[in-house]
Amino acid sequence: QVQLAESGGGLVQSGESLRLSCRASSSRYPVYHMNWYRQAPGKQREMVARITKSGTTSYDDSVRGRFTISRDANNTVFLQMNDLKPEDTAVYYCNVDLKTPTGWDLENWGQGTQVTVSS
To answer: If we measure between CA atoms, which residue out of 47, 31, 24, 35 comes closest to residue 79?
Structure first.
């Protein structure tokens, strides 16, 4: 029902920046909220940032002030990551919430993109 194409990961040094992007193509239901999660080795997947359809944003405390989430009218979501730290190293996943006639479809995930920050 939905295809998610991520890009933008890579290897950077501490203090540098990266920008992730993810384009959502939904053939059936409208895309509402768009989210970025990350999963570090040996840890659970955690939400990093969220942007609603109306543009309201929220962030995990660990990235607030350093990361900025945004989206455009074509259902592409971006994550600008500044002042990266080694603890930001993880696989980053795009996730979108679809609004269905009966509720929500929340399990829509991108393939993941590796972000590695060296000290």
So the answer is: 35
Contacts of 48 by beta carbon, 8 Å cutoff, 6+ apart = 35, 36, 37, 38, 59, 60, 63, 67, 79, 92
Distant-in-sequence, close-in-space partners of 41: CB < 8 Å, separation ≥ 6: none
- In this predicted model, what pLDDT tens digit does every residue of 27-76 receive, in sequence order? 899 999 999 999 999 999 999 999 999 999 999 999 999 999 999 999 99
Cβ contact 89:116 at 8 Å: yes
119: its two tokens = 């000290």
Non-local (6+) Cβ contacts of 100 within 8 A are: 29
Tokens of 56: 């309201």
The mean pLDDT value of the chain amounts to 96
Q: Is 78 strand, coil or helix?
A: strand
